[in-house]
Every structure is written in C-alpha cells, then in structure tokens.
Design brief:
The complex is a heterotrimer. In chain B, strands 1, 2, 3, 4, 6, 7, 8, 9 and 11 form a 9-stranded mixed sheet that branches. A two-stranded parallel sheet of chain B has the order 5-10. The longest helix of chain B is centred in the first third of the chain and has 16 residues, at 17-32. Chain B is built from 11 helices and 11 strands. Chain B is an alpha/beta fold. Chain C is built from 13 helices and 2 strands; from the N terminus they run H-H-H-H-E-E-H-H-H-H-H-H-H-H-H. By secondary structure, chain C is an all-alpha fold. The chains are: A mainly alpha, B alpha/beta, C mainly alpha. The interface between A and C is large, with 112 and 116 residues.
C-alpha cells in the first residue's frame, strides 16, 4: 500500500487539474451572474432583452438594438466569409498537391494569429474611409458593412480549418466510387464529398458564428457603436461585446451591473452556440470511419491562436 | 491623460468602493509622491473624479511641500470621501446637488472647457445652443440647415458614463432633450477628434485640451472656446474642477491647496490645457 | 488521400459530356481565386502594417519606455509587460492544462465524468474574451483584491488559454503509440513513471506547440487584458503592478489618435512577434509528427 501512495497522490493531483476547466467555468458563471443578475431581475428579463432604448443615465436598459446588431454583423460575416472559407477548404483539401498545401495551410492559419486590434485598425484606416468616400456606398463609414467585412476575414481561418477537417474525414472510397462512375472532380465534390461532410461544415459555420459574436475590439473600432437599429448596411451599429467594452470605463452602480447583464446574455449565447456545434460534430459520421487525425490538423492550431471552440473532432 | 482612463475609472464599477480606492492608491502612489514628508507630516490625500485625476497627479508631482496621494473613484466617490474624511480633498468634475453640498467647502481649482469640433474644411463656424441641441437630438440632420453644404451631419458623441458627455447633456441637451441614438459613439476623446478630422461631415465634442489644428472649433452662441472665455465663464460649455473639503482645510492640506491656486499651480493647469480659475 | 491524382486532365477525358467539364474548369478557377483572395488579404494585412511600421522600429523604439502617453519614446515597458503577463498565464495554464490532459488521456476511459470535463473544456473555449475580461475584473481584480495587475491579467489569460492547452496536450499524449507505455510498464515502471519518463518526453514537442501558441494568444489578446492588467505605462516591478501589454498599448494609441507612427511601429512589432511564434509552433509540430512517423 505504501509503495502505491505516490501514485495515488499523483492521480489525485491530476484529477484536480482535470476539473480546473469546469471550476473556472463555474466561477465565471457565478461572478457574471452575481454582478449582472440584480439589474436583470429588477428590470425584468423581457424588458431587458426586448427593450429598444439604452440610456443608462436615465435608467433605461434595453438590449435589443445590440442583440440585433450582433446578429446583423454576424450574418454579414457569414455571407461573405462562408463561401470564401468553404472555397479555400475545398481547394486545400481536394485540389492542391500536398506540397503546395503545406505552404498554403499555415499561411491561412496565420490569419487567425493576427491580433484583432490589428484588423480593427486596418478597418479604421482602409475600409471605413473607403465606404465613406465611395460614391455608391457613403454614410459615416463606420457601419454594419465595415464590421461584417472585418469579421468575415476573422472567421475565415475557423471556417477553413474546421471544413478541411470535415472534408478530409470523408473516406477516400466515396470519391473513388464517384470518379469511377465518370463524375468530374467538381461533381464528386458537390455531389458526394460536401454532402458527406455536411455536419462538419455545419459545425464550422456555428463555430464561425461563435467567433463573430464574441469578437470585441475589431468591431468596436469599425462599427460606429450607435444604439439604434440600423436601417441599412451603411448605418452604424453596436454589438453586445462593444456595449460592454465601450462603457466599462466609467460605468458605476446599476450601469455597471447592466454591462455585466449584457455579459450574461453574451455568455448564454456562446454556451448555446457551443452546444450546437458540439451536437453537429457528434453527428459527423466520418469519425467512425476514420481514425482521429494527427495533431497537425489545422483546427488545433487555429483554435489555440484564437480560442475558437474546439476542433472538429473528439477523441474516442 | 485620457489614455489612463480605463485603469482609474473601472474602480467605480466596484461594489466595495473603499477596497478599490485602496487598490488604486497602490497603483498611483508610485508616481504621485514627490518629496518625502518632513517628520510628523502625513500625506495629503485626494480622491474622486477621474477627469481631474491626471491634472491632480501633475500638481502632486510638482508640489514640493510633502507627499500627495491621488486616488481615482469618480466624482460621486470623491464627494463621499470628502464627507467621510477619507480624503483631505474630494475631487468632483460636476456641480454638487443640494443634498451633497451640505457641510462641504467647494473650491474651484480649474475650469475645463468642452469644445465643439468639425472638419477643418467645414464652412460652418458658429452655432447657437438651440441649433446644437437640435443637431444632437437628431432634429437637424443636414449641414445645409446650418449654412453649410448639402450633406448629412455625422453626429459623434462620447459613451454613456463619460463625464464629458454628462456635462454636454446637462448644458446643451438640458433635461428635456436626449442625444440621438443614431449618433456614432466612441469612448476616447482623442479618437473622437480623429474621427472628426477624417470625416468632412462630422461634428463632435472634446475636452478643450484635445483641440488641435486637425479640426476647427465652433463658436457657441457667438463665443469661441479659449482659455480666457472659459476662465471668465463667457463660454458656457464648461465644467468646474472642484476640490471639496469638510470645512476649511488646515495644515498640509491647506498648503497644497494654496499651491494649486498659486500662479505656479495654475500655470501647470494651463500647460495641461485647462483654464485657470483666475485670469492672470 | 492524394488530391493531385484526382484533378488532372485524365479525369476530364473520362467525363461523358462537355458541360460538366466546363463546370469543372470554372469551379476550379473559382476555388483557386477564392484561395488567392484569402491569401491576398493576409498579404495585404502584413504589407500594410509593415510598410508603415518597420520604419518606426529602431533600437531606441524597443529600448525606451513611452513618453507623453506613448506619443514619444518607445514601447519598452509594454514589451516587458507583455512578457510578464504572458509568462504568468503560461506558468499557471501549463501545469493545470497538462495535468488535466494526462488525466484525460492516461487515467480515464470514456466515462460520464470525462465527458463532463470535455464539455466544460469546450464550453470554456467558446466564451468570448470580453467575458473573461468581465470575469477577471469581478473576480481577480475586485473580489480577490489583486487590483489591476500582472497577476490578475495573467490569471485571466490562463483561464482563457487553458482549454486549448488541455486539448493539444491531450492530443499529443494520445498520439504517442500505446506500445511505449506497455514496454515501460513491462520493465517494472509504475504508471506515473511510465508517463513521466517515456510518454511525456515523446509528446513534449506536441505539448510545446500548444504552449507556444498559447503564448501567441496571450500576446495578441486585448479585451481580456485591458480590464484586468490595466493600462499603466511604466515598467512593472512586481506582479502586483498594473501593466499595459503591447496589444493594449496599440489599441490605446489608435483609439486615442495619439500617434500614427508609434501605432504602426507597435503593430509591426506585434506582427513580427506573432509571425515568429507561428513559425516556431509550426516547426515544433512538424518535428513532432515526423518523430512519430
């Protein structure tokens, strides 16, 4: 018994560290709710998330413009980023000799490593004036459109990496069969590979959404942050994340609580998205058919650089 | 100065005001103490407005009469600290409400003007207070109505909670009007100036010290913001920087206040972009 | 899978009709243009920052602390702050994350408990950094009384990068062939001995990759750090000092419109750092996967 004691101590220690992530998640929940719940209960959940006016100085806390704002820029980011990301994934997984891919893949992953403040800065310096001075576009420049474009670039690495994993997980036999039947490569991709990789691609989309919804700094720099429902893509908009970061500086009392309550809403949305992505991934049939890919998978790295939720696979 | 803002300002979020003020004194003690104290003399403690804090730190830095500790916490916390006696001087960048001023001696140590700024090429050079209110309320949306080009006005404002915005709301918008929800919002006055400098249709407001050649300032009711017009109160869009004490300050606190109000002290305020309390 | 064997003219020759071949060509072109556009964006970002930023970088820029809120001087204090905050984060996240990974990879089978842990880890990974900022402020800065400090910032970042450290480490451990453990155990080593002396050394480069990339995230993070480590510009002397990291400094310079050249210079240093970190991570990972082949 004595000899085995260190082993047991080690195991206990390891067990303790294994629970650390759960413990932190619990702590975050407790503290965000502790700070934010009073104002949420006071105003009523419904009037808080359904309210149209945000004017803390006169005690009005309506979050709807920000919820809509987050939804709009996220949608915009997906509309622009998804086709592009999927195309990149198809190119890299299906159309590229491995030597070229070895250069391209880390290059695209590097997009995930660029700090978000740098994207925001380029948005301010290049994109905003471009939109403002354009004869077709116009407006103040700080807009739904500017935020969408910047976010599209920022979700690209996530979408590409998770989609590549999904596409690569489709067994080779599927392709061979299709090609043997005389289908072109493109027909094989659209008819066989993509449908087979569907749930993985859904996961990529959801993870992309999570990334766009959660981005703060880049959005704050280019979105204009007005607290009003935008009428067009060229109107400024404020997201949930921007609401928090923008007003944290001087907020006090109920105002500060309302910002934590904004955090609660964001927190719940993130957890839901994560759960959805998890479900989509669990439906991925290819996992059963192929062994888990090695560490080189792009997702692990993108995720590390960016903190995107999870890779496209779970370990059996 | 404004760049230090999040650090000092966040304290106000905290429930445990005192705890946070202590933390904050740890933060700032290193850079605000000047000479070491003569035996038996304790620190002069200032607490309150984050807007005044950078200037107070500057005064503390130059002051040779003893150590001065500057703590942030916001105007409300400053008023409270003056009442409690936790600080020798509470700092407030807003006028006190009747209930708050009871038993406090209020000394104006400087005045901070808020300048209205537009793009350097904007032909509009003056607005009345009523026009300005209409612009920020969203009732006037085109420069043509103000004698400018036929272009929509890009209204830019500071974020909720900012002292500059509070003053603007109080003096310009009054109790009846609110700043249009469609206005662009930024949390940084330097950034606001940059936004105005880049957009020829923009209007915004920044603290007087932020004024520079990239933008031009508008006259309000015929008065341009200058050190003189702010100091003599003719330029209306301004706020007082107040030191609050429980009765007349004594000893080292009184000495520090004398220094702040002296020609040297006021020269520091001017160098930092504030208007002095007495025209020199 | 070898994609090059599938796309060539040989396939097209077997295609029965003309239309699919045309579609195939057009699609291929479209896919490649999209990829080129994506790479183009990256190149643009790097060139845009470097062209204006590299000129601002000098020995003095790296060696001097910022003056007048960063309008003059260099960024020395922010480099030091970044190092400290990152080091604090890594020092906390590595043992916890590695411990968790060892437990998950070596001590459990797929159980309700391990699934719960994985779920928690996933959940944590999906939380936006601003929430970590709020949490870090409420917990470390206020409740624990650590103030805005390197410690608060580092601990917040540690919480943020923990899930990713856990996952890469676990994957690295699982990539080590089972036989290694069997051999060690058959030679009389205890389970922990086998892990410590055989499995961990083999998995080390993979684990290191995770840590290096964790460094990358810590360096580029802004939202979670600005509310926890604060924005003090002087060189920190203890873990209880407030510190402004490079990213936060860059954000402040830009948002306050303090100085464009200083902002570009800071951005260039940031980007170079990130590039170096990525190359390092890539090299490590390459070596790891090759060593197991």
């Amino acid at each position: 018994m004595n000899i085995r004691l260190p082993e047991r101590v080690v195991e206990r220690l390891l067990l303790a560290s294994a629970t650390s992530a759960l413990a932190i998640l619990a702590l975050i929940t407790v503290f965000i709710f502790r700070e934010g719940l009073p104002v949420l209960l006071d105003k009523g959940l419904f009037s808080f998330i359904g309210g149209m006016r945000w004017a803390p100085s006169s005690g009005e806390y309506g979050l709807l413009p920000m919820i809509v704002g987050s939804a709009l820029v996220t949608l915009g980011a997906l509309v622009l980023g998804l086709p592009l990301g999927l195309a990149c994934a198809i190119t890299l997984a299906e159309m590229t000799p491995s030597r070229v891919r070895m250069v391209l893949k880390p290059t695209i992953e590097l997009l995930a490593g660029v700090p978000s403040v740098v994207y925001g800065f380029i948005g301010m310096e290049v994109l905003v004036p471009l939109i403002r001075e354009s004869p077709v576009l116009g407006g103040p420049g700080y807009s739904v459109l500017a935020a969408s474009v910047i976010l599209a670039i920022m979700v690209l690495p996530t979408i590409v990496a998770v989609s590549i994993d999904a596409i690569e997980a489709v067994p080779r036999g599927f392709r061979d069969g299709s090609l043997a039947l005389g289908a072109t490569q493109w027909q094989t991709i659209t008819g066989v590979v993509l449908p087979a990789a569907r749930s993985g691609i859904v996961a990529a989309v959801i993870l992309g959404i999570g990334r766009a919804v959660g981005e703060t700094m880049a959005v704050i720099m280019v979105a204009g942050n007005s607290v009003r429902l935008p009428h067009s893509l060229l109107d400024p908009v404020r997201t949930l994340t921007a609401n928090i970061a923008l007003e944290m500086g001087y907020a006090s009392g109920p105002h500060a609580q309302a910002l934590f309550a904004t955090g609660i809403v964001l927190f719940v949305i993130s957890l839901c998205l994560n759960e959805l992505a998890g479900r989509a991934r669990r439906r991925l049939p290819a996992r059963v058919l192929s062994p888990p890919p090695a560490l080189t998978t792009a997702q692990a790295r993108v995720e590390l650089m960016r903190g995107t939720p999870d890779g496209a696979r779970e370990l059996a | 100065m404004e760049t230090e803002r999040p650090l000092h300002a966040i304290v106000r979020n905290a429930r445990h005001g005192l705890l946070c003020m202590l933390l904050c004194s740890v933060e700032t003690a290193g850079c605000t103490s000047s000479a070491s104290n003569p035996v038996g003399v304790r620190d002069v403690i200032l607490a309150g407005s984050t807007s005044i804090q950078p200037f107070a730190e500057r005064w503390a830095e130059v002051y040779r009469g003893g150590r001065v500790t500057v703590q942030a916490g916001g105007s409300t916390a400053g008023i409270k600290a003056a009442h409690d006696g936790t600080a020798d001087f509470g700092m407030s960048s807003r006028l006190l409400r009747a209930a708050e001023s009871d038993g406090l001696l209020q000394t104006i140590v400087a005045r901070d003007g808020i300048a209205l700024i537009v793009h350097a090429s904007n032909p509009v050079h003056a607005l009345t207070l009523a026009q300005l209110r209409a612009v920020y309320a969203g009732e006037i949306a085109n420069w043509r109505a103000l004698g400018g080009a036929d272009a929509p006005i890009t209204v830019i404002t500071r974020e909720e909670g900012s002292g500059t915005r509070e003053t603007f709301q109080e003096i310009v918008m009054g109790t009846t009007s609110v700043i249009d929800a469609g206005a662009l919002v930024t949390a940084y006055s330097g950034g606001l100036r940059k936004m105005v400098a880049e957009d020829r249709n923009a209007i915004g407001y920044v603290t007087f010290s932020q004024l520079n050649a990239e933008v031009h300032a508008l006259a309000l009711d015929g008065v341009l913001p200058t050190e003189a017009t702010i100091a003599n109160g003719v330029y209306r869009l301004q706020r007082p920087f107040l030191f609050l004490s429980k009765g007349s300050p004594t000893g080292s606190a009184a000495e520090f206040l004398r220094f702040v109000l002296s020609a040297d002290g006021q020269a520091i305020a001017r160098a930092e972009g504030l208007a002095p309390v007495t025209v020199q | 899978m070898n994609p090059s064997s599938m796309g060539g003219p040989a396939d097209q020759a077997t295609a029965p009709r003309l239309a699919p071949r045309v579609v195939q060509r057009a699609a291929r072109m479209a896919m490649w243009s999209a990829t080129a556009l994506t790479v183009g964006v990256l190149v643009f970002v790097i060139v845009f920052v470097m062209r204006r930023g590299l000129g601002a970088i000098s020995w003095e820029f790296l060696r001097e602390s910022p003056r007048r809120s960063g309008a003059e001087g260099g960024i020395f204090s922010t480099i030091v702050s970044t190092l400290y905050v990152t080091a604090a984060a890594i020092m906390v996240a590595t043992p916890l994350g590695l411990g968790a990974a060892i437990y998950l990879a070596e001590y459990t089978v797929d159980s309700r408990f391990s699934r719960l842990i994985r779920r928690g880890t996933d959940g944590l990974a999906g939380i936006p950094s601003i929430i970590f900022g709020l949490f870090g402020f409420a917990f470390f800065v206020t409740a624990l009384g650590l103030g805005w400090s390197i410690l608060s910032g580092g601990l917040t970042l540690a919480a943020m990068i923990l899930p990713t450290v856990i996952r890469t480490s676990e994957e690295a451990l699982r990539t080590v062939p089972r036989e290694y453990r069997h051999v060690a155990r058959s030679l009389g080593a205890t389970k922990w001995d086998a892990i410590r002396s055989v499995v961990l050394p083999v998995a080390a480069p993979g684990i290191m990759t995770g840590i290096v990339l964790g460094v990358g995230r810590a360096v580029s993070e802004t939202a979670a750090v600005i509310f926890t480590a604060g924005v003090a510009l002087r060189v920190p002397t203890s873990v209880f000092d407030s510190a402004r990291t490079m990213s936060v400094h860059f954000y402040t310079l830009t948002m306050e419109g303090i100085s464009d050249s200083q902002a570009y210079g800071t951005a260039a240093v940031l980007l170079v750092t990130i590039l170096v970190i990525n190359v390092a991570a890539y090299t490590l990972m390459h070596r790891f996967t090759r060593s197991l082949r």
